[in-house]
């Protein structure tokens, strides 16, 4: 049985990373030119890793299924990126960011990794500013910060409501510079369909050219998976429709343990579902909770319009229940609170499955401040409203425009209607301190690994982790492995192991194409999504999870006997792409339910209804479940659980409270 070794360095928490960097094995420049690295995914983690490793001298190949790295899903991140700069002089520090992240993750993250993340966070901002990322600035020119959930300091750097896009453009520029210099070979419209493992080590991938349909073999001394999360297992999510688990799942089947798959983050501020026609959901950035107030009517089934309900008949339930943090409680808490209010009959809108996010008070506050700035005395209500809306537009304008385009309602005049939706996945491939999986030479970065976020990610920390892994962690840690690979020559992709790996992928594709059933791929994906959302979504229980496992097994059998994939395999075929991804989701969904069933506690985004406090909060069991659950694939519907014990030596583990 494989023993989990996190390879955490010795020494005090604050010195681990510094000592590690000073003592880790290095590869000299001449040898780097002979070492090849395959990177799958071109989002923030992939692009930053590729640019950094190519700059160091490694030969890098980058693969993405989009037509350009600029279309990676990182572009959709809106609200900001955390860093412990303490620009506001409000008490922030590396340790406070570390503490907030551990606590926000409900004490289910590895201390050493999280502290390293906090340490390098400031470097990320410096790097991105140097690249020209247009962060918002204060009047005097200093970088601006705003608040995000789960913290009491302002540490989130942002670029209006399109922070992910601007950060990705910075990383993309660095990547394209290396492409132009010939250090990076870029393969767009390519999807990785298997990892090639030789003598127990990752030695390359099998990829499909999505335009021609041809299968290709690519060698690498190391393989980095930077392929994002698996939220689309629920069908409806805030993820791009192409986001999938295939690369990580193929690696799982080749020996990489999958960790904490049941840890799914539900984002509290999404535009509600409007009908069965939808294929994805739209996120309204958490940054809106920085200024917006969340409420529902105090009266059940209130049919009045929002602006017809007087102030004393509104229940600002987050401010009422969590006075210390108010609207800025962590995402899991805000999401469950919204669900509880709607389930109790206080929901709004036609579906009654929504709550209000109201900017009226913020508009007035900003308007009065702006009037003072402009030395306008005795400003009228209309002038204050106008000036306040100008400030809000500058901070959140693109988000407000997006909401209006989708719903037809003007959020400057009426409160937004929001409801929780699947957003981020804290689970992923298990990695050690070096970001290496249980397969030597195979690494996972960003959301593709089981992350530094424990059971719940704090807002604005995803961009931080992706860039930390790519810019400041993997350039050091990969050397510890590649230093011992300098005598390994590049392997011919005509070797038997590569040929056999390609044949296995080809056989799988032919098997899918030859089913010739009667139901579309989306039919199965939607059914899986409903099972997952209803029985392994915001709330889970033993009976529902057992039922979900049985239902998924039956759905998988039906898929492999009755799915219909039109077109040809050796050509452009989006339905074939989707079929392969849904096939993997059908297997992952079962593991998610098994993991949720095994974890008999509530923590972060994993809420078992049997384990909650009297006032409905998550109830952990630290004696039995303070571990990372790492699952080993052992065949269809067979997984073995391995446990990495979590030790808290620098933080006192306690019941979370945001009251």
Task: Provide a concise account of the structure shown.
The protein has 659 residues and is an alpha+beta fold.
Structural overview:
The chain is α+β, with helices and mostly antiparallel strands and 659 residues long. Among the domains are: 268-422, Flavocytochrome C3, Chain A, domain 1; 501-619, Methane Monooxygenase Hydroxylase, Chain G, domain 1. It is built from 17 helices and 19 strands. It has helices at 16-23, 29-32, 44-56, 94-104, 111-131, 163-180, 246-253, 317-321, 331-346, 360-373, 381-407, 462-482, 496-513, 521-536, 542-562, 574-598, 622-625; strands spanning 36-40, 59-63, 81-82, 156-157, 184-187, 190-198, 201-209, 215-219, 222-225, 258-259, 264-270, 293-297, 314-315, 355-358, 416-425, 428-429, 442-444, 627-633, 639-645. The strands form five sheets. A five-stranded parallel β-sheet has the order 5-2-1-9-17, with helices on both faces. The two termini are 44 Å apart. The model has no long low-confidence stretch (mean pLDDT 96). Its cofactor is FAD. It holds the Pfam family Succ_DH_flav_C.
Question: If you compute it from the alpha carbons, what radius of gyration comes out, rounded to the nearest whole angstrom?
Answer: 24 Å
Largest beta sheet: strand ordering: 5-2-1-9-17
Number of helices: 17
Which stretches are low in confidence, meaning pLDDT under 50 for 5 or more residues running? none
Distance between the termini: 44 Å
Class by alpha and beta content = alpha+beta
Helix content: 25-40%
- Specify the CATH homologous superfamily of the domain at 268-422: Succinate dehydrogenase/fumarate reductase flavoprotein, catalytic domain
Largest sheet: 5 strands, parallel
CATH architecture of the domain at 268-422: Alpha-Beta Complex
- Look up the CATH topology of the domain at 268-422: Flavocytochrome C3, Chain A, domain 1
Subcellular location: Cell membrane
Catalytic activity: a quinone + succinate = fumarate + a quinol
Organism: Aquirufa nivalisilvae
Active site: 331 (proton acceptor)
């Amino acid at each position: 049985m494989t023993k989990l070794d996190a390879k955490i360095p010795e020494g005090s928490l604050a010195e681990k990373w510094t000592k590690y960097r000073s003592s880790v094995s290095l590869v000299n420049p001449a040898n780097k030119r002979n070492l090849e690295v395959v990177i799958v995914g071109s989002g923030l983690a992939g692009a930053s890793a590729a640019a950094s490793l190519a700059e160091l001298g490694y030969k890098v190949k980058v693969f993405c299924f989009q037509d350009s790295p600029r279309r990676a899903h990182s572009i959709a991140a809106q609200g900001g990126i955390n860093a412990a700069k303490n620009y506001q002089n409000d008490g922030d520090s590396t340790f406070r960011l570390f503490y907030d992240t551990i606590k926000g993750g409900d004490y289910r993250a590895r201390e050493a990794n999280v502290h390293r993340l906090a340490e390098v966070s400031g470097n990320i901002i410096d790097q991105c500013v140097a690249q020209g990322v247009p962060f918002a600035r204060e009047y005097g020119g200093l970088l601006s910060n705003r608040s995000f959930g789960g913290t009491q300091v302002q540490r989130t750097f942002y670029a209006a409501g399109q922070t992910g896009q601007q950060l990705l453009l910075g990383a993309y520029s660095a990547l394209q510079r290396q492409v132009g210099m010939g250090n990076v070979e870029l393969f767009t419209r390519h999807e990785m369909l298997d990892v090639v493992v030789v003598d127990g080590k990752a030695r390359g991938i099998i990829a499909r050219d999505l335009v021609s349909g041809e299968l290709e073999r690519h060698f690498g001394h190391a393989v980095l998976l930077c392929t994002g999360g698996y939220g689309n297992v629920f069908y409806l999510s805030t993820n791009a429709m192409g986001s999938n688990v295939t690369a990580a799942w193929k690696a799982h089947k080749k020996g990489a343990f999958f960790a904490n798959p049941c840890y799914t983050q539900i984002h509290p501020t999404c535009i509600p579902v409007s009908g069965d026609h939808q294929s994805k959901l739209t996120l309204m950035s958490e940054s809106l909770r920085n200024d917006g107030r969340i409420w529902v009517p105090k009266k059940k089934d209130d049919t009045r319009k929002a602006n017809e309900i007087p102030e004393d008949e509104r229940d600002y339930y987050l401010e009422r229940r969590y006075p210390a943090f108010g609207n800025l409680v962590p995402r899991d808490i805000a999401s469950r609170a919204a669900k509880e209010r709607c389930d109790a009959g206080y929901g709004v809108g036609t579906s009654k499955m929504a709550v209000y996010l109201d900017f009226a008070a913020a508009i007035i506050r900003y308007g009065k401040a702006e009037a003072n700035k402009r030395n306008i005395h005795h400003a009228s209500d209309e002038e204050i409203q106008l000036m306040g809306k100008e400030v809000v537009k500058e901070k959140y304008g693109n988000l407000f425009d997006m909401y209006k385009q989708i719903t037809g309602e003007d959020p400057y005049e009426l409160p937004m209607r929001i409801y929780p939706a699947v957003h981020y996945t804290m689970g992923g491939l298990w990695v050690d301190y070096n970001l290496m999986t249980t397969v030597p030479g195979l690494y996972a970065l960003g959301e593709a690994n089981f992350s530094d976020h424990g059971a719940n990610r704090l807002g604005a920390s995803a961009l931080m982790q992706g860039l930390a892994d790519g810019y400041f962690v993997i350039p050091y840690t990969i050397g510890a492995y590649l230093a011992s690979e300098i005598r390994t020559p590049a392997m011919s992709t005509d070797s038997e192991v590569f040929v056999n790996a390609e044949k296995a992928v080809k056989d799988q594709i032919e098997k899918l194409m030859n089913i010739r059933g009667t139901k579309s791929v989306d039919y199965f994906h939607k059914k899986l999504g409903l099972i997952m959302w209803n029985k392994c979504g915001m709330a889970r229980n033993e009976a529902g999870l057992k039922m979900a496992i049985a239902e998924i097994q039956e759905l998988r059998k039906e898929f492999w006997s009755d799915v219909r994939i039109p077109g040809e395999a050796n050509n452009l075929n989006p339905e074939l792409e989707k079929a392969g991804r849904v096939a993997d989701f059908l297997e992952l969904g079962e593991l998610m339910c098994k993991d949720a069933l095994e974890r008999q506690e509530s923590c972060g985004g994993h809420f078992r209804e049997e384990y909650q406090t009297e006032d409905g909060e998550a109830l952990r069991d630290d004696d039995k479940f303070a571990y990372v659950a790492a699952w080993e694939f052992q065949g269809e519907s067979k997984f073995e659980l391995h446990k990495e014990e979590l030790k808290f030596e620098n933080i006192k583990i306690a019941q979370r409270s945001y009251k």
